C-alpha cells in the first residue's frame, strides 16, 4: 500500500497504525536515505506498541531496546554495517528469537539476510520538503 504524509507527525501516526498489526517476531525493514523519516516512523511503532520511553537514533549503538510495550521493540540502525555477515556479531539471531519487533533502519545493507515474512517500509521524498511517499508491503493496515 502507498501512503503520502505531510509531516513528521503523520509519518509517526502511520507507524502507530502498523504497530497494531505486528505479531511477536515481526521484522520491519526500512529503505530510504538520510533523513527520510525511518526514525520518525519507528517512534510511531514504539508508541503503537505502548512503549513510553523516548526513541532515539541507535546510530552509534547499532541497536536500542525498548521494553514495557505489548511486545519488546528492538530498533536497529545498520548504516555502519557493510554486509549481512556482520549481523552475526551483533547477535541478530538472538534478537529475532526473543519474540519482539525488530525495526531495521538501513536494511539495504543486510537485505539478503531478511526472511520472506518481513514487512517492508520504503520512504521517499515527496513533492515538498515535508512530504514523504511511504510504501508498505507484507502486511495490511
Ligand atoms: N512527512 C515527514 N515524515 C517524516 N519526517 C519528516 C517529514 N517531513 C519532514 N520530516 C523531517 O525529516 C526528518 C526525518 O528524520 P529521521 O531521523 O526520522 O530520518 P531517518 O530516515 O531516520 O534518517 P537517518 O538515515 O539519518 O537515520 C526530520 O527532521 C523530520 O522533521
Ligand atoms: Mg534514523
Architecture blueprint of SSEs:
Layout: E1 2-5, H1 8-21, E2 26-31, H2 38-49, E3 63-66, E4 73-77, H3 87-90, H4 92-97, E5 101-105, E6 119-125, E7 132-137
Parallel strand pairs: 2-5, 2-6, 4-5
Antiparallel strand pairs: 1-7, 3-4, 6-7
The chain binds adenosine-5'-triphosphate and magnesium ion.
Magnesium ion is lined by residues 38-39, 57, 105.
What fraction of the residues are assigned to beta strands by DSSP?
Answer: 25-35%
* Proportion in helices: 25-40%
Report how far the terminal alpha carbons are from each other: 9 Å
Order of helices and strands: EHEHEEHHEEE
What is Rg?
A: 14 Å
Placed side by side, the strands forming the largest sheet appear as 1-7-6-2-5-4-3
Structure, described:
The chain has 141 residues and is an alpha/beta fold. Helix content is 26%, strand content 26%. It contains four helices and seven strands. It has helices spanning 8-21, 38-49, 87-90, 92-97; strands at residues 2-5, 26-31, 63-66, 73-77, 101-105, 119-125, 132-137. It has a seven-stranded mixed sheet with strand order 1-7-6-2-5-4-3. α1 (8-21) crosses α2. The chain is globular and about 40 Å long. The model has no long low-confidence stretch (mean pLDDT 95). It binds adenosine-5'-triphosphate and magnesium ion. Residues 38-39, 57, 105 line the site of magnesium ion. Adenosine-5'-triphosphate binds next to α1 and α2.
